[in-house]
Design a protein that fits this description.
Elements (H helix, E strand, L loop, with lengths): L12 E2 L43 E8 L10 E7 L13 E4 L24 E5 L19 E7 L5 E9 L4 E10 L13 E7 L2 E3 L2 E3 L2 E7 L5 E6 L6 E7 L8 E8 L13 E7 L4 E6 L5 E4 L8
Antiparallel strand pairs: 1-18, 2-3, 3-4, 5-6, 6-7, 7-8, 8-9, 9-12, 10-11, 12-13, 13-14, 14-15, 15-16, 16-17, 17-18
């Protein structure tokens, strides 16, 4: 049974590998206004939470919630699981783990939902004028000579997500990453109003004279100074640990570790997705995940309930 007090005790989440990404292979739910991972049709909650039209089953686990954070949006680290995501979401994968803060894009939310007017006319994306970039902490050019632009995602509640786009000259396209999250009370004067900030390390690589934009998320800091520290593996591909700090002490007040295993679903495009098989928490509790191909299921082995 899934309860609000024990969100980690959920079972049996099926994984669906996606089809080859071609317009000829239409998927059930591709015409859903919020994408195959979007909850647009009313969720069925008998035994789980899934969309009756797209077949997507979604789980959301708050691994860390930092107490006392300032603003309407709490500082927390969340994992998302969608059993059905489409090649049209830009990742070319089926089911996979996603994390809060990482996947904000001009048309995608971290939980895999397609961002658009289907969620209300209040939600839309708009560019930042070059003269206003500095107000959001965006430099128009970087050390590689690449052009930077800004985009604002206007959320339905009045909040905003500020995206920084970096031009990749090899294909004349901008690559975006979120740098600020502003609640509805932090949007009127961006230059003088503190917001939740996301700190990234530029790990771009240059091949044949073209620098490919790549950024690693290192820290999420709320206006009061509390922050989350994100730790990656040696390849900067997988998140292995997240630590929470109160902004005063040098030791974390909370943490979560992730152990990954190599993906096994050869039918996933372009390659099998790595999955988490063990999560451990600072209070001594843990969760074990098992996966079974080819129509893989994921289940959580029993562990002590963790109440917060």
């Amino acid at each position: 049974m899934i309860t609000n007090r024990n969100v980690r005790s959920w079972l049996a989440i099926p994984i669906l590998a996606i089809a080859i990404p071609t317009a000829a292979f239409a998927e059930q739910g591709d015409d859903n206004p919020t994408g195959v991972a979007g909850a647009f049709n009313g969720q069925i909650t008998t035994g789980s939470s899934y969309d009756p039209y797209t077949g997507n089953m979604q789980r959301q686990i708050d691994d860390i919630v930092v107490p006392g954070s300032i603003g309407a949006y709490p500082l927390k680290w969340t994992r998302y699981w969608n059993s059905h995501t489409s090649w049209t979401d830009g990742d070319f994968v089926g089911a996979s783990w996603r994390f809060s803060y990482l996947k904000w894009q001009p048309n995608i939310t971290p939980d895999g939902r397609v961002f658009g007017d289907a969620d209300g006319v209040e939600e839309w994306a708009g560019g930042i004028a070059p003269a206003d970039l500095a107000s959001y902490g965006i430099a128009q050019y970087d050390q590689y000579g690449r052009t930077h632009i800004g985009e604002i995602l206007h959320l339905a509640d009045g909040g905003q997500v500020i995206l920084e786009g970096v031009l990749y000259s090899a294909n004349n396209a901008y690559y975006f990453h979120p740098i600020q999250i502003r609640d509805p009370y932090q949007t009127t004067d961006p230059q003088h109003t503190p917001a939740t900030t996301l700190t990234w390390t530029d790990i771009s690589t240059t091949v044949n004279g073209a620098t490919s934009p790549r950024f690693r998320l290192d820290r999420i800091t709320e206006p009061g100074g509390r922050y989350l520290k994100v730790i990656w593996d040696s390849s900067n591909s997988l998140i292995t640990r997240v630590e929470a700090y109160d902004g005063v002490n040098s030791q974390p007040i909370d943490w979560v570790n992730y152990r990954w295993r190599a993906g096994v679903l050869a039918s996933e495009i372009p390659q099998p997705q790595n999955v988490i098989d063990l999560v451990t928490y600072s209070d001594g509790t843990s969760a074990n995940y098992t996966y079974t191909p080819p129509m893989a299921s994921i289940s959580v082995l029993p562990f002590a309930p963790r109440h917060r």
